[in-house]
Design goal:
There is one protein chain. With 537 residues, the protein is of the alpha/beta class. Helices cover 35% and strands 18% of the residues. Strands 1, 2, 11, 12, 13, 14 and 20 form a seven-stranded mixed β-sheet that branches. Strands 7-6-16-17-18-15-19 form a seven-stranded mixed β-sheet, with helices on both faces. Strands 3-4 form a two-stranded antiparallel sheet. Strand 1, helix 1 and strand 2 form a beta-alpha-beta unit. Helix 1 runs parallel beside helix 17. The two termini are 25 Å apart. The structure holds flavin-adenine dinucleotide. The site of flavin-adenine dinucleotide (FAD) has 40 residues, from helix 1, strand 15 and helix 16.
Length: 537
């Protein structure tokens, strides 16, 4: 990587080269700003990275599927030209302990027949549910692309935004209004109970409600997280999830390419130790950064894509921020609850309930056999233990993208919940790590016993690893829980949801800002638009 010329001053320095930092840099560079991205790791992408962990096997080490990436970003940055290619992920297969299964695919007729096999009533309700969720998504989607209002001010511009949301709400049918309020307040299971009777269907669908939260499927507020995961689109199709060819790192690399083409400089292995603030004291101005090696680099604007705890308590000298703001930062919840187990395989898992190789292996495979199973997994985590019977979301990307492993070999990516960051007294993640990995293999083996014989290599990623290696505080995969009290105009701190901070020219542009986590790029883009609007750089 080219080193920064001595004495060079930038318009903007972006802290962190995760996909949001890169989106932020790309928009600013395209607007003519002189931008430098500084990434701590040896590889770009943050939680959206691809790494060859074992020779020949390229893992999407953290995030593994994409859907939420904003279409306007794909368009504005012309990402397909920079190598972005999204391949469809078809369906979700849930094996059951009794030898049955539930297999939903993108083909409407097939899914209808499959659900009807479990319950005719649910098959009808499934269509209605899909329509209702689409209506909810239509309501929420414009909000993803808007700067959150500050409802506490009388500024007409802010009030107009509140009015805009109010008008959209008013425009919905009564049914949709009730659904929307229920989604905002209910648990995923209570919400799904209103529609369905099939236990395994509810269990699998509720899983989207708990991802990245330290909540159970019966905890209020999880219904909204369900919607968050429903919201994505690929080529305009709601709810479609896909693989990026080359792994999720390919998304970050395409964005980085667009940013470089627009003139941004990007450095890896360049950890930022401090953000420099001029005029120590309240409401100073950010003027540059100090790298881990002591080098100082100056810029008019610092845009931080790392979470508020790292930005404001680790990188800023104490005394520079108002107490009230710091109270908000300290209250912001992380509570990591997930881990990842990535495996290099010599063959394919053979499910007892659907033997052989088939299309069911090409989509997501979900270990979520019952609502009780899901809730019990949470019960253990509440008291500081990883779930002995965890929820696991598995994908085999090599069935869609053969470039990720040597011929005939495969990658199995397992997202696992719950893996609580804070373990019970006497337990620590360094000791628990491989036991946790063993338990994931054993759990899968209950459904696909051959798994034990086909593992060539295994990588276990604990919440502590996510914190140490990826800078995700307390291992939260979304840089802070996606719970209702931390969303929209409350993310990350009430009164500071518009990407600015109390320090002049210090902005936030990562997943800890609106609209939150996932490979979405929206925080990076919105923050760039605000920086440009302020004329700060
Ligand atoms: C295990 C896991 C599974 C996930 N699965 C999915 C999924 O399948 N689909 C999906 O859409 N989302 C998923 N997510 C969430 C998604 O990956 C993240 O929300 C998103 O990638 C965060 O992007 P970001 O750019 O905001 O932040 P980050 O990716 O956290 O980027 C921040 C960057 O800052 C760098 N950094 C930290 N400290 C410093 C420093 N001092 N100096 C310089 N740089 C620094 C970090 O190394 C990192 O590269 C998953 C996340 C995890 C962890």
């Amino acid at each position: 990587m080219p080193s920064v010329a001595r004495g060079t001053k930038y318009d903007v320095i972006v802290v962190g080269g995760g996909h949001n930092g890169l989106v932020n840099a790309a928009y600013l560079a395209k607007a003519g700003k002189k931008v430098l991205v500084l990434e701590r790791r040896h590889v770009l992408g943050g939680a959206a990275c691809t790494e060859e962990i074992f020779p020949g096997f390229k893992f999407s080490v953290c995030s593994y599927v994409v859907s939420l990436l904003r279409p306007e970003i794909i368009r504005d940055l012309d990402l397909p030209r920079h190598g972005l290619e999204i391949l469809p992920l078809d369906g979700t297969f849930t094996p059951m302990p009794n030898g049955d299964h539930l297999w939903r695919v993108n083909d409407h007729g097939k899914t209808h027949r499959e659900i009807a096999r479990h319950s005719r009533v649910d098959a009808e309700a499934y269509d209605e549910f899909g329509k209702a969720m689409q209506a909810m998504c239509r309501f929420v989607k414009p909000i993803l692309s808007m700067i959150p209002p500050d409802p506490a001010t009388l500024n007409p511009k802010e009030l107009m935004k509140v009015l805009f949301i109010g008008r959209r709400f008013q425009g919905m049918s009564s049914e949709d209004k009730y659904n929307q309020v229920q989604l905002m307040t209910m648990s995923a299971i209570d919400f799904l109970d209103q529609w369905f009777e099939t236990d395994v269907l509810k269990a699998t669908m509720s899983a989207s409600g708990i991802i990245g939260t330290f909540l159970g499927v019966r905890s209020p507020g999880t219904a909204y997280v369900l919607l968050h995961h429903y919201m994505g689109e690929i080529d305009g199709a709601f709810r479609a999830w896909g693989f990026a060819r080359g792994g999720t790192g390919a998304i970050s690399n395409a964005i980085a390419d667009a940013a470089r083409e627009a003139g941004a400089e990007i450095r890896t292995e360049a950890p930022i130790a401090k953000i420099l603030v001029k005029n120590d004291g309240k409401n100073g101005r950010a003027v540059g950064v100090v790298l881990g090696n002591g080098d100082e680099i100056y810029a008019d604007v610092i845009s931080s894509s790392v979470d508020p705890r790292l930005t404001f308590t680790k990188m800023i000298e104490p005394g520079n921020l108002p107490d009230e703001f710091m109270e908000g930062v300290n209250r912001y919840k992380f509570r990591g609850s997930s881990g990842k187990v990535n495996m290099a395989l010599d063959g394919l898992p053979d499910f007892k309930c659907m033997p052989g190789v088939g299309a069911h292996l090409r989509g997501a495979m979900s270990i979520s056999p019952s609502v009780e199973y899901m809730e019990k997994a949470y019960d253990e985590a509440k008291y500081g233990h990883w779930s002995s019977h965890p929820y696991i979301d598995m994908v085999i990307p090599t069935l869609t993208d053969t470039s990720l492993a040597p011929p005939g070999k495969h990658i199995l990516s397992c997202f696992v919940q719950y893996a609580p960051y804070k373990l019970a007294p006497g337990l620590d993640w360094d000791t628990e790590k491989e036991k946790f990995g063993d338990n994931v293999v054993n759990t899968i083996a209950e459904y696909a016993p051959n798994i034990r014989n086909i593992i060539l290599h295994r990588q276990v990623v604990t919440p502590l690893d996510l914190e140490r290696e990826w800078g995700l505080t307390e291992g939260n995969i979304f840089q802070g829980e996606l719970s209702l009290e931390q969303l929209f105009f409350l993310r990350p701190v009430a009164g500071w949801a518009q990407f600015r901070s109390p320090i002049k020219n210090l902005y936030m542009c990562g997943s800890a800002t609106h609209p939150g986590g996932g490979i979405m790029g929206a925080p990076g883009r919105l923050a760039a638009l605000e920086i440009l609007k302020d004329g700060a750089a």
